[in-house]
Specification:
By secondary structure, this protein is α+β, with helices and mostly antiparallel strands. The chain contains 14 helices and eight strands. The protein folds into two domains: about 220 residues, Endonuclease III, domain 1, CATH 1.10.340; about 120 residues, Alpha-Beta Complex (Nucleoside Triphosphate Pyrophosphohydrolase). The longest helix has 17 residues. It binds a DNA duplex through α2, α3, α6, α8 and α9.
DNA sequence: AAGCCGGGGGT
DNA sequence: ACCCCAGGCTT
């Protein structure tokens, strides 16, 4: 696969990019003021596969509750997960919490200043480690997030398919080559900003781009073809049944999901196989005698790799509060822990939306 | 090397 | 309806 990097690359890329950044870059993101290692780290984890506009409110709420690495390390897992509910990729929250405890336990709460050590912490890969040291410490390190990938792939006309080694490997080499040896904090922010605001996936604003005359994709008129399209795969359809079980005082039975898999570590409505018998399942899992009440309108939810139809049944619990395993608890409706977004919608469904 | 993990937003 | 997004982990 041909790679065609611009000639005299390092400063020929960094200098015009930095000049553009001074005028058009994003200088008011919450994690930039103050720009502490802890805040940069949390922001970078939240921003993995998640857009800036989505992250901002979560970031501010998270910082208000967990203002430093010690507050995070000391917090209970459920509370951390609760602050993550709705953001997705919940392994990020579990890893963030584990890393905070590791930082306190083995690094005395002080962030390592080098990429290799940071990468030993759970949830921090090469790109996130690079972003943290560059943004928090001004230490030279390449980053390669989705924005930088697209910018560099177009600059050097890398036409390989994303996700393959033919794409990722040259991009890392080029990312290191272009990364400025001065103002590295601004450079890493600049290349992300360029990708996010000008060099967008569709309809890039090439005429406003400070690198237009260096861009090999532009020169070859193949900008729209980079990055190459991934081959689409069919998403299988699955179905589950969840139970809205209320006791006599209106409390809701929730179950903590296993740490890995869909919605890992989050509290959710008890889930049973789509074809399972509701009464038998409740007797076996919770020791509860129940009466299935009414089915609710099914919810369709799309995941990256499959489509899920969620059938929900409202269930009355006859006997009181037996729970046979340690993964289920009763919660008052006004004191629910964080639950996945589709489940939150189900739980909030008013009575008149029942599918009678 | 490829699959898994999610919710939100843009077009 | 489809695509992508401040990726990392697992197999």
């Amino acid at each position: 696969m041909p790679i065609d990097p611009p000639a005299d690359a390092p400063t020929a890329i960094a200098d015009p990019l930095l000049s553009w950044f001074d005028v058009h870059g994003r200088h008011d993101l919450p994690w930039q003021h103050p720009r502490t290692p802890y805040r940069v780290w949390v922001a970078e984890i939240m921003l993995q596969q998640t857009q800036v506009t989505t992250v901002i409110d979560y970031f501010n709420a998270f910082m208000a509750r967990f203002p430093d690495v010690y507050a995070l390390a000391e917090a209970a897992s459920d509370e951390v997960m609760g602050y993550w509910a709705g953001l997705g990729y919940y392994a990020r929250a579990r890893n963030l919490h584990a890393a905070a405890r590791e930082l306190v336990a083995t690094h005395d709460g002080v962030f390592p200043r080098d990429v290799e050590t940071l990468m030993t912490l759970p949830g921090i890969g090469r790109s996130t480690a690079g972003a943290v040291v560059a943004q928090a410490f001004g230490v030279w390190a390449p980053i390669l997030d989705g924005n930088a990938k697209r910018v560099i792939a177009r600059l050097a006309a890398v036409t390989a398919t994303p996700g393959t080694a033919a794409y990722e490997q040259p991009l890392w080499a080029l990312a290191a080559r272009y990364t400025s040896t001065h103002r590295v904090t601004d450079y890493t922010q600049a290349i992300m900003d360029l990708g996010a605001t000008l060099c967008t996936r569709r309809a890039p604003a090439c005429s406003a781009c400070p690198l237009e005359d260096r861009c090999q994709a532009r020169r070859k008129r193949i900008t729209a073809d980079i990055p190459a399209r991934r081959k689409k795969k069919a998403r299988p359809q699955r179905a589950v049944t969840v139970l809205v079980i209320e006791d006599e005082v209106g409390h809701l039975l929730l179950e903590k999901r296993p740490p890995s898999g869909i919605w890992g570590g989050l509290w959710s409505l008890p889930e049973i196989a789509a074809d399972a018998d509701i009464e038998a399942a409740c007797r076996e899992r919770f020791g509860l005698d129940v009466v299935p009440d009414v089915p609710m309108t099914p919810i369709e939810h799309g995941f990256t790799h499959f489509l899920l139809t969620i059938h929900a049944w409202r269930v009355r619990s006859l006997a009181a509060t037996r729970i046979m395993d340690g993964h289920a608890e009763w919660f008052a409706r006004d004191a629910l822990p964080g639950v996945p977004a589709p489940i939150a919608r189900l739980v909030d469904t008013p009575q008149h939306d029942l599918n009678l």
